[in-house]
Queue: 3 jobs
Job 1
Amino acid sequence: MVGRMLDFFLRNLQPGGGALLLRQLLERAAQGGQPLRVLAPGGHLRRPLRAAGCQVHERVDHEPLDAVCATAWRSDLTQQLAGWARLVRPGGVVVLVTPRGRPLRQVVCAAFLHAGLADPVQHTAGVAVLTSGRVPPPAEIPR
């Protein structure tokens, strides 16, 4: 049921609601007015990302991305986030949309930190939680 509620939320993101929040999170990655290059694994966020003016990619090419925005994750969330972070240029962001309470917000935030993402931010929007983290410059990545 939670999965269906999250799908409903994502299909119906409207400007001024969750789409505005998503756009604000992506502004952290903005560079000089160019459209953001965003990977959207899982496909649920393609429509709202395109509506926000992003170039949405379904596959990774040779150029670093500005952001990864996803709704799906594997059982090892930290490894998944670290993998996505490697695809994003320094200063870009990783955004994960999860159902409220699954996994717990603290677990998601800890996974962002353990994956090497900086400045995690969480916002609730309806039945979903949007968590974003910034990809730090190589000098800031803990070894």
Job 2
Amino acid sequence: MELRVGEFEGDLVLEYGATVTPEGREIKVKGSVICRGSCRFQGPLEAVSLKAGGDVEVNGWLQVAGDIFVDGALTVAGGVYCRRLRAENLEAKGVLSVEEAAVADTLIADEIIANSASAGGTLKAVKASARKLSAGDSVEVREVFAENVTAGDGVAANLIVALSVTAGDEIRAGRLEAERVSTGGDVKAREIRALQLSVGGDVEVEGVLNVERLSAGGDVEARELVGETVSTGGRVRVVGDVFAESISVRGELDVGGVVKAASASIGSKLRTGKGAWILSLKVEDDGELQGLVVAGDVRLGDGCVADVIYAESFYCGEGCRVRELHAEEAYVGEGSFIGKLSYAQRVYMEEGARALEMEKIERVDAPPDP
């Protein structure tokens, strides 16, 4: 069935396999377009609404005042403009401008402007601006501006600016700015700024990782780390500096620059290139401190090893080794060894503990905070 339509009054009902060709520049229907099966429009289409029982192909833009309901695939060579859209698959070579779009499988558009856009499978676009953007599998958009971005598998974008980003497996971005970021897998980005970052796996950032609350089950890597609360189940490696209120690392904290924190708990090793200034420091059994440490309170578990420590209060368990210690007061556990010990107020040595050199001083002059 082939029709030529310029401007059509009322509803246009098409049988299965119908092809409509415009008499002029476009097909304009002043009512609803109803396709009993699949149909094709050989030019731009304007109508009050569109409903189809099969696939729909439009060779141009598609503009509908109301809703578009397509049981099959909707393929449009231009932009799509409507109120609500339902389809099995959607591919638009232009802008998808809609209040709400729900696609069962794959949604592909050059640009998405929507209140809500969702795909049961993959959602792909060059740019998307939406209140809610979601996909059962993955969201793959070059630039995203949204309140909420959700994907069952992964989110990938060059730029993400959102209130909330949630992915089941992974998040990969160039620049990521969000209030809340959550994934059960890994996060990899060029730069991250977030209020809350919750990651089940690893976090890898080429530049600055700026986050108020960071929780990672795996390792964290960044050029610079700035945060309030940092908690990781693995290792933290930072090329430059670390600035935080609270740090808890089960593995190793390896920093090329300085570490400044109110409190830090280290499970394995703290290594700094330019020193650590921490008010309260705790190191678990068999831990290690490499580099300068300046702290208010230092507590080392059994079997710990350290280089140079300046502290107001120092405590170490059994069998520790400290090359150089300067403290207001110190408690040295059984069998521990201090190479050089300087104290201002008091020192207590348990049985078998010893210092190669020990002197009492007027005060501890710690290196200044850089």
Job 3
Amino acid sequence: MTQNNIVIKDDCTTCGSPVEMGSIIDNQDLDLTIKLEKPDIDSQWQQMSEQLTQRFPEARMKILEHTSHYQVVISFSCGVEKILYQLEMLR
């Protein structure tokens, strides 16, 4: 990926293979879909909503109801925000 005539590359710390940042960040992929089980929806939704708005105030959430679960769709303003949120969820 080239930005202002600077090539943005890094090497994998495990195997040493070169990684070009543009190949792993797709700035068109802005939506994250998460499945939540029905019995716990209120607590899960509240926690997710608070964490999301504190960290990414421009992100938007919508919830879709299905027979056995809910589907939360989070729309981020850029692909990097989506990746960061996913990584933070793993903690």
